[in-house]
Amino acid sequence: MNITIVGTGYVGLVTGACFAEMGNSVTCVDVDAAKIDRLNNGQIPIFEPGLKPIVASNSREGRLRFTTDLPAAMKEAKVYMIAVGTPPDEDGSADLKHVLAVARTIGQNLESYAVIVDKSTVPVGTADRVRGAIAVELEKRGVKIPFDVVSNPEFLKEGAAVEDFMRPDRIVVGADTPEAADIMRRLYADFTRNHDRIIVMGVRDAEMTKYAANAMLATKISFMNEIAALCDRLDVDAEKVRQGIGSDSRIGYSFIYPGCGYGGSCFPKDVTALVRMAEECDLDPLLLQAVHRRNERQKHVLFEKIVARFGADLSGLTFGVWGLAFKPGTDDLREAPSVVLLHELIGAGARILAYDPEAMEAARSQLPRAWFENGQLQLVLHQYAALEGIDALVLVTEWKPFRHPDFSAVKKMMKQPVIFDGRNQYEPAVMRENGFDYFGIGRRG
Ligand code: UDX
Question: Which stretches are annotated as coiled coil (predicted)?
Answer without folding.
Answer: none
